[in-house]
Amino acid sequence: MREMAKMLLQLENVSKRYLRHTVVQDISFSIFEGQSLAILGKNGSGKSTILKIILGLSKATNGLVRQLRGDKLKIGYIPEQFPKNLRFTPDEYLYHLGKIQGLSSYYLQKRIPQLISQFQLDTVKNLWIHHLSKGMRQKVGIMQAILHEPDILVLDEPLSGLDMTTQQHLIEQILSLKKSGVAIIFTCHEMDLLRKVADRAIILEDKKIKEDFMLQEEIDGYMIIECRWHDSKACDLLRDVDGVTEYISLTEDVWRIQVVPSYSDRLIAQLLCWGASICSVTKHEDDHYEHKINEIFQT
């Protein structure tokens, strides 16, 4: 059986007020290792306020923010607007930030060249940051946020104002971080980023969480595979298959299996290897959340 992901951070009934104005109210959710959570909502819905509370840049008026690793939890942050007029090269900027964070010179001399190569900034590493394009500055922003190898990466509108080519490259870098086990919390207005990166999404409305759902199941729908399969260990085998969300034995040798669409081909191949015969494959879609998200992104 796969090991359960460990909880890193938990918000419990968090509210934030400025004088008599309530920004967010009774916000509760958790984030786990390797999970990617999108916080969605119209402008002014409180998305950035929640990020600031998570980062410790703003204190909740009520409720609790629990860091399950205590002081050992490392969080990186990429703001929506990266400073433009920095008279440092990427190498110098990262080195000075690293020293401020208490990282050793030995560590930084190894880590910084790795990041510059990973983000393909070798050709501009000796240019001042204020001479770089917005896309390149955003890459430097991500590099500074992951310099100390954080457990959680917080991104506020990371693709805002970038061209499509740069957006795709940054999405690839974010996915690579996610695969390495970094938890991602982000806000965005791009459906492509949402579909490719997020496992889960919450929608803010009227200062509260209006919707909380697993993205692949609700936006992409799900596949239903019915098959003939006689195996006494069927339940044990299906329990450990990635993408399977539900399964039931209809008769002694007929199974109905629900699976995330992106995993359906892999599951069919695995069932055939186990000796099952496929009876039918159908797709079920629910466009409720997609309409809701499109409405938000258009504001």
TrEMBL record:
GO terms for molecular function: ATP binding; ATP hydrolysis activity. InterPro entries: AAA+_ATPase (IPR003593), ABC_transporter-like_ATP-bd (IPR003439), ABC_Transporter_VariousFunc (IPR051782), P-loop_NTPase (IPR027417). Residues 9-231 form the ABC transporter domain. SUPFAM superfamilies: P-loop containing nucleoside triphosphate hydrolases. The keyword Nucleotide-binding applies. Keywords: ATP-binding, Nucleotide-binding, Transport. It comes from the Bacteria. The keyword Lyase does not apply. CDD domains: ABC_DR_subfamily_A. This is ABC transporter, ATP-binding protein. The lineage of its organism: Bacteria, Bacillati, Bacillota, Bacilli, Bacillales.
